């Protein structure tokens, strides 16, 4: 896919997407209503959400950014022995997730999300089947510098029949793709949310999760 110099802006995740739970979620997104060690007594619903994407796309970073509890990380140092089988990462990245990341975010006064980050190395793809058990949906992170690296992750979500939203994690040296270019390259259905975020930034990361929640609510209310 070609990048375009004349960048056409396309939507960030809407700050206040509408009525109902997702609308309240958006209104409450900044600041998040949670933050305590325990889930607030007002919370009546919980959803398990996978955070997926290729190696080094920012899954662990995003969960660390949004989690209101101390996140669980399973980082291991990438060794020379692993180089024979693993995808190489950029030189600044020295560790990789080897089991899962775990975090929690109260996204609304009555809805909490439990976030499960998957490992990015290709050899861990089979582990997703277990991680996905009981998940309601997934947030798929895309690296705009290497869109094709996400094909496996999106294909795997489709195999698992897991609804998802796509969040483009923007890096400083990212090429500027239009929304249409990305939708075409990723072969997204028209209803699949596509938003931009910075995994290091709480507001845009929260709003990417809200776009996913909206999508899940819509899918649940539309299905017979
Ligand atoms: N500039 C920039 N750097 C980022 C961003 N997100 C993550 N990073 C950096 O990119 C690197 C990769 O982040 P991780 O969160 O470990 O990526 P991951 O997807 O969990 O990687 P694996 O678990 O190995 O698949 C880290 O050094 C982050 O600091 C971003 O939005 N912008
Ligand atoms: Mg990770």
Automatic annotation (TrEMBL):
Entry keyword annotation includes GTP-binding: yes
Pfam families listed in its UniProt record: ATP_bind_1
Region ranges (Disordered): 1-28
Swiss-Prot/TrEMBL keywords: GTP-binding, Hydrolase, Nucleotide-binding
Biased composition range(s): Low complexity: 13-28
Keyword Hydrolase belongs to the record: yes
InterPro entries named among the record's database cross-references: Gliding_Motility_GTPase, Gpn, P-loop_NTPase
Protein family: Belongs to the GPN-loop GTPase family.
UniProt protein name: ATP/GTP-binding protein
Lineage: Bacteria, Bacillati, Actinomycetota, Actinomycetes, Kitasatosporales
């Amino acid at each position: 896919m070609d990048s375009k110099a004349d960048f056409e802006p396309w939507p960030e995740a809407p700050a206040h997407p509408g009525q109902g739970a997702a609308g309240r979620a958006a209104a409450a997104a900044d600041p998040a209503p949670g933050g305590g060690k325990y889930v607030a007594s007002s919370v009546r619903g919980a959803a398990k959400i996978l955070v997926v994407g290729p190696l080094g796309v920012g899954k662990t970073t995003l969960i660390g950014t949004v989690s209101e509890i101390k996140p669980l990380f399973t980082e291991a140092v990438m060794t020379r022995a692993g180089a024979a089988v693993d995808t190489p990462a950029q030189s600044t990245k020295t560790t990789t997730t080897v089991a899962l990341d775990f975090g929690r975010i109260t996204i609304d006064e009555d809805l909490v999300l439990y976030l499960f980050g998957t490992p990015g190395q290709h050899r861990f793809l089979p582990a997703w089947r277990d991680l996905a058990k009981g998940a309601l949906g997934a947030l798929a992170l895309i690296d705009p510098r290497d869109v094709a690296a996400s094909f496996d992750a999106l294909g795997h979500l489709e195999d698992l029949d897991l609804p998802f939203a796509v969040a483009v994690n923007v890096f400083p040296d990212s090429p500027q793709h239009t929304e249409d270019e990305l939708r075409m390259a990723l072969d997204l259905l028209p209803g699949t949310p596509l938003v931009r975020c910075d995994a290091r930034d709480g507001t845009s990361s929260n709003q990417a999760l809200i776009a996913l929640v909206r999508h899940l609510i819509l899918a649940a209310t539309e299905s017979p």
